[in-house]
Amino acid sequence: MENANSKVIGRTRNHRLGLQRVAILIASAGAATFGIVVDPQVGTIAVFIAGIVSLMFLSLRRTLQSALSLLWFVRVEPAPSDLLFVWAFAQRAIGGRVRKDVVIWFIPFMALLMVNAVQLLWTLDLQRGLFFFTATSYLVGVAVLLGDSIRDTVSWSEMRDSFLWAVYVNAMVVIFLAIIFILTTSNRLAPLYYAERPKGFFKDPNVAGAFSVLGVLYAESQLLFSRKRKLALASGILSLGGVLFSFSRGALIGMIAGLIAVGVVALVARRTFRFIASLSLVGLTTMLALPVAIEAFGQSSRFQGLTEYDVRGRFAAWQAGLQVFAEAPWGIGPGAFEKGIVSYFEEYSAHNTFLRVLVENGLVGLLFLVLGLATVFRSAVSSIILTCRVADRSWLADSAWLAGSLTAVLVESWFIDTLHWRHLWVIIGLIFAHHRIMKIAASSSNL
Length: 447
Known about the structure:
By secondary structure, this protein is an all-alpha fold. Helices cover 76% and strands 1% of the residues. The protein is built from 17 helices and 2 strands. Strands 1-2 form a two-stranded antiparallel ribbon. A hairpin with a 2-residue loop joins strand 1 (193-194) and strand 2 (197-198). The protein is globular, with a radius of gyration of 22 Å.
C-alpha cells in the first residue's frame, strides 16, 4: 500500500514539475518573441518588469529557477536574472549559513577576490576596478549559491532544466533573427545584430553562440546515454542552429572541444558507436549548413584563416599585455587591461581570460584562478567516475554534459573574455552540486 502511494506521489510530483518546466519555457519563449516582433526596447522593459514582479512572490528555489530561465536576456545590466539572483542572495542570508563544504570548495576563487580587493589600491581606473571586482564577486556568489541550494535530485533537475530552457530560447532567437535577416531588412531590430551577425538578447554574438553550445553538448550526452533520443535530437538541432548563425569561431572551437570531452566519456562507458554516429550527424550538419549561412550573411572573410582583426587587434593586444606583465608581475588592478596596454597599443580588450587575469591580478591571481578551475574540473571528472559506479545512465549523461560544457568554455577562454560570463559560473555551481549528489548516491549504493 505504501509503495503504491509513493508511486502515485512520485507521478504527481513529476507531472507538476513537467508543467512548471513547460510554463517556464512558454513564458521565456513568449517574452523573446514579443521582444522581436513588437520592439526590442519594449521587450526589454517587459522582461525587466516580469523579473521585478517575480521578486515579490517566489521562494528561494523558484527564484533561482526564474533567474536561470532568464539567462537568455542579458543585453542590459543589471539583467532581470541579476535582480533575481540578488534577491536569492537575500533569501539565502535570511534562511541560514552556507554549508562548510561549499565554502571550502570555493576557497581558490575567494582568494582571487581578495587579490582583486587589495589591487584596488593601485588600479589604473578605480571606478572600472570597483565594477570588475563587484561583478566577479557577484558571479562567484552565484556559483556558491547554486552549489549550496541544490541538495537533492529534484532540485537538481529543476535547476538544470530551467538553465537549459534559457539555452534553447537563445538558440531560437538567434535562428529567428537569421531568418528575418535573410527575408527582410528591419532597422527596428538592428540592436539585436552585430556586424550583420545575430546576437539575440546578448551584447555579443560570440557569447550567444557559446551559450548555444551548451545545448548541443547536452543533446550529445542524451543521445549517448539516455533513451529520450528524439527530444535530444530536436533540441540538439535547435542549439546547433544557434551556434552556426552566431558565426562565432570561438563558439565552434569550443563546441568541438566539448564534443571531444563528451566523446572521451562515451569511450570510457563503451558507447563508441553511438558517439561516432552522433558526432557524424553534428559534423555533417555543420559542413552542409555553415557554408550556405556564411555566404548568405557575407561572413566568408571570418572563416578564411586569420583576419586583420586577429593579427593587428587580438594578437597585438596579447603581445602588449605580456609586456605590461613583464613590467608589473604583481598586477595592475582589476579591469585595467585596456588602459594598461596603452603604452604599447591602443585601448583594446584582452580577448583571453587567462591573459587578462595575469596582467590585472598578477601571477598570484592567475594561480588562484587556475587552482579554482582545476578543482572544478577534478570534481567534474570525479562525478563521471561516481556515476559509472552508480550505473545510472541518466546521471552519466549529466556528468558528461557538465564536463563537456566546462571544457568548451575553458577552450573559448583562450580567445574570448569569459571571466564575467554568467553561464560559466552557473556551470561551476552545477558541477559542485552534481558532484555532491553523486557522492551521496555512490555511498548509498555501497551500503
